Amino acid sequence: MQRSERAPRVGYVLKVYPRFSETFVVTEILSREAAGEDLAIFAMRPTTDARFHPEISRVQAPVTHLPKPVKLSDAWTVLREARATIADLDNRLPGILPLLARLEPSEAVQGVHLAVSATQQGITHLHAHFGSMAARVARVASAIADIPFSVTTHAKDLFHESVDHELLHEILAAADHVVAISEFNRSFLVTRYPDLADRVVLIRNGLDLSRFEYADPAPVSGPLKVAAVGRLVEKKGFTHLIAAVRQLTERADAPALQVRIAGDGDQLAALSAQVTAGGLGETVELMGPRHQEEIRDLLRWADVMVAPCVVGADGNADGLPTVLLEAMAMGVPVIGSDVTGIPEAIHDDRTGQLISADRLDEGDLGELMAALERAAAHDYPRVQTARAARTLIEAEFDTARQARRLAEHQRGESLLIGTRGV
Fold first, then answer.
1. What's the pTM?
2. Is 180 helix (H, G, I), strand (E, B) or coil?
3. How far is CA 141 from CA 138, 304, 419, in A?
4. Which of these, 244, 241, 232, 234, lies nearest to 310 by C-alpha position?
5. Residue-wise pLDDT tens for the chain (422 aa)?
6. Do residues 257 and 278 make contact, with C-beta atoms less than 8 angstroms apart?
7. What is the rounded distance in angstroms from the CA atom of residue 264 to the CA atom of residue 198?
8. Domains plus CATH for the chain?
9. Which residues contact 102 (CB under 8 A, 6 or more apart)?
């Protein structure tokens, strides 16, 4: 059967699956399966997570773990299998050799292995999340198996100091289309790589809105209940949140606070020490990692959700935290910094409060402290702000709509590549 005659089947290419912190991938896959699409998953590394979100059990797509080669003979075994599986391999392989020579050996071999597995499983399109390892492996497989591929870019794969932009450009230039999750990212891509402008499309990470029921926020009663969620890493800015809370607790005229931070990461020990040193043991709780239903419970508890994101010293920055969108969908007032795509969700004084990440980085906590005080004030328009936020989420971050647009691009049906997305 010729490729054009095959039933569409999309292969998701991921560095790790399942991954506790990448709920947006599972949400996208579930939405596409709910629409009747036939999907498969290819992962290059086994998960090291000890906890999993219940939603993962709903994924129907079969998972193929591409073994990481440990010795030279592994590569030869994969090549022999490729020659037996892919009829035109001898003619296609020379064209990809310059790229193979630039990659880590394991990525080159896994790319060949993916080509074999995708061919055997009838994959008609490969889609990689992140423009790093997954995209490079997908590119190799695409060239060898003659299967088109696409890439969703995020944040670390674009902004981290370790990004090889020449190699990234080469990979993205070979893609059928490149997805940007925010207008900020889309502008970054087309400015940095002008030749890609006609294939970069804005498709936002979405939410399954049926799982995030909206309720008008209640008036604040007692201490302001503050929730923050994310990996405990520099770019999340939690050290600034704790510092702001400490300063507020030292002021007699400031509102009382109760803060819960959910997540795990490299900064756990440092943040714990900061809480202890500030005498905040009764005010700030580091909850550790929580699965999605527990996060929803946390958001139902909260009077305000805070995402004080900053740009890390290594250039890494958040794209747009999914949990921020979840809070807005549920009717929880939000405070966030103006990093990358966050201003596309938080429209200051309309759908939430937007503060300056640069000022946080400079140690100026004034805006964050003022935002917390305003969220606690009796005259803050909590209901009006929450309703505006929910309206925005429904219009621009509905996973069914976003996944449908992604599927249209991968079927070649959309005429909107390079234009502004929903």
1. 0.89
2. strand
3. 5, 45, 28
4. 234
5. 344 467 899 999 999 998 877 888 999 999 999 999 999 999 999 887 766 777 888 999 999 999 998 888 888 899 899 999 998 898 998 999 999 999 999 999 999 999 999 999 999 999 999 999 999 999 999 999 999 999 999 989 999 999 999 999 999 999 999 999 999 999 999 999 999 999 999 999 999 999 999 999 999 999 999 999 999 999 999 999 999 999 999 999 999 999 999 999 999 999 999 999 999 999 999 999 998 899 999 999 999 999 999 999 988 888 889 999 999 999 999 999 999 999 999 999 999 999 999 999 899 999 999 999 999 999 999 999 999 999 999 999 999 999 999 998 888 643 333 333 33
6. no
7. 39
8. 3-206+398-410 (3.40.50.2000), 210-396 (3.40.50.2000)
9. 167
Torsion of CA 336, 52, 291, 26, to 10 degrees: 50
Distances (CA, A) of 247 to 46, 91, 224, 306: 43, 67, 15, 16
**Location of structure tokens 């140690």:** 363
Q: Could you tell me which residues are beta bridge partners of residue 225?
A: 258
